[in-house]
Design goal:
- Pfam families: Transposase_mut.
- One of its GO terms (molecular function) is DNA binding.
- This is Mutator family transposase.
- Keywords: DNA recombination, DNA-binding, Transposable element, Transposition.
- It contains 18 helices and 7 strands.
- With about 400 residues, it is of the alpha/beta class.
- It has 3 domains: about 100 residues, no CATH class; about 50 residues; about 240 residues.
- The protein has a 5-stranded mixed β-sheet, with helices on both faces. The chain has a two-stranded antiparallel sheet with strand order 1-2.
- Helix 4 crosses helix 17 and helix 11 packs antiparallel against helix 12.
- It is elongated, with a radius of gyration of 30 Å.
């Protein structure tokens, strides 16, 4: 619709109805409302510059100085916009700012949403082109997703609750580009269950490798953010991990993951012996009591000790951490004797990150994990199943450290 043409309401109504029925955008390319949006924006910009060029500006010699064309991307397509200029270039429009090429926050939110679900910049660009007839470069997409960085930093530093009943600590591994080469990065995640039985990812940390020293810093950070007590910590078999926890939270019960221990054990058992060895090992970790488990461990050693002394010694050496769960009921045992809970969370994160290859930086990695986590946590609205019974049993065990709100 040319400005010089007489406005034809019937033509507009007809075209609007046709596009609504066909599902086409009313504001996109050839959309019925596209000329109206362009006119409204340009009229608003003219109003802004007229207001800016007051008597004082004009007395100083400032005047209108033509217009400049720019392509403005919106959630409904791209508009060719004529933006007014002044002679001194001091006019700062607010409706559509200088160098602003994307108008709608809704479009940015859509881009961030797609990125958070694992789509690559190339796929996002193609999708935006198909849906909105709008070209967006990878550089622009990167700058849009960078708007998440302050949210990531705020989330990393947010205050936490003073008590968590159960906390799982585990790591994931990724590739990151650094100074022209690809290096390994370890992402430490801490998943907790609060007194109401709800999950919360307490923190995500990036380091060059997994180690007890770094975990010590992570646990110190939790303490600084308000966590004064953890009842039970579930960990993998990393050397020095339990000692790191004890130095910050000395009263915390530590349970090493049985599945990690089994995996590490079976690596040192000959393939022909693995099936019978596992059959004899199962009564150890599935025993009804610690005493029965220790009896079964004696039986295991008697049968396999000479052939696989390293494996048996590993179970003996780590037994205190491996056997913590025997003092609890069946429901609590299932929660703590493996790190399955946090590994399930990791599987959901990997669905989003698996197509990324090497990340361009540590922050690029953190951005995506943060966005993936926000989506995952939307489902964490209810307490764990049968939590009221579980927390009652924990309160009996830990006394004043877990005060229930009745």
């Amino acid at each position: 619709m040319d400005k010089k043409e007489k406005f034809n309401y019937e033509d507009l109504k007809r075209k609007t109805l046709e596009q609504l029925r066909s599902g086409k955008s009313l504001f996109g390319k050839d959309g019925a409302f596209a000329p109206l949006l362009k006119d409204i924006l340009e009229a608003a910009l003219e109003g802004e510059i007229d207001s800016y060029l007051d008597e004082e500006q004009r007395a100083g010699g400032n005047r209108k100085n033509g217009k400049i064309s720019k392509k403005l991307k919106t959630g409904d397509g791209t508009i060719d916009l004529e933006t007014p200029r002044d002679r001194t270039a001091s006019f700062e429009p607010q409706i559509v700012k200088k160098r602003e090429t994307i108008l709608a926050e809704s479009l940015e939110n859509k881009i961030i949403g797609m990125y958070g679900h694992g789509m690559s910049f190339r796929d996002i660009s193609a999708h935006i082109k198909d849906m909105y007839d709008t070209e967006i470069s990878a550089t622009t997409l990167s700058s849009i997703t960078d708007k998440v960085i302050p949210l990531v930093k705020e989330w990393q530093a947010r205050p936490l609750e003073p008590l968590y009943c159960i906390v799982w600590l585990d790591a994931m591994f990724y590739k990151v580009k650094e100074e022209g080469r690809v290096v390994n990065r370890c992402v430490y995640n801490i998943l907790g269950i609060n007194a109401e039985g709800r999950k919360d990812l307490l923190g995500t940390y990036v380091s060059e490798s997994e180690g007890a020293n770094f975990w010590l810093g992570v646990l110190s950070n939790l303490q600084q953010r308000g966590v004064s007590d953890i009842l039970i910590a579930c960990i993998d078999g990393l050397k020095g991990f339990a000692e790191a926890i004890a130095s910050i939270y000395p009263a915390t019960e530590v349970q090493a993951c049985i599945v990690h221990q089994i995996r590490n054990s079976i690596k040192y058992v000959a393939s022909k012996d693995q099936k019978p060895f596992m059959a004899d090992l199962k009564p150890v970790y599935q025993a009804v009591s610690k005493e029965e488990a220790e009896h079964q461990l004696d039986q295991l050693q008697e049968k396999w000790g000479r052939k696989y002394p390293v494996v048996i010694d590993s179970w003996r050496r780590n037994w205190d951490k491996l056997s913590t769960y025997f003092q609890y009921s069946e429901a609590i045992r299932k929660l703590i004797y493996t790190t399955n809970t946090i590994e399930g969370f990791h599987r959901q994160v990997r669905k989003v990150t698996k197509t990324k290859g090497a990340f361009t930086s540590d922050m690029a990695l953190l951005k995506l994990i943060y966005l993936a986590t926000q989506n995952i946590q939307k489902k964490w609205t209810q307490p764990l199943q049968n939590w009221s019974l579980t927390v009652s049993q924990l309160s009996i065990k830990f006394g004043d450290r877990l005060k229930l709100r009745l």
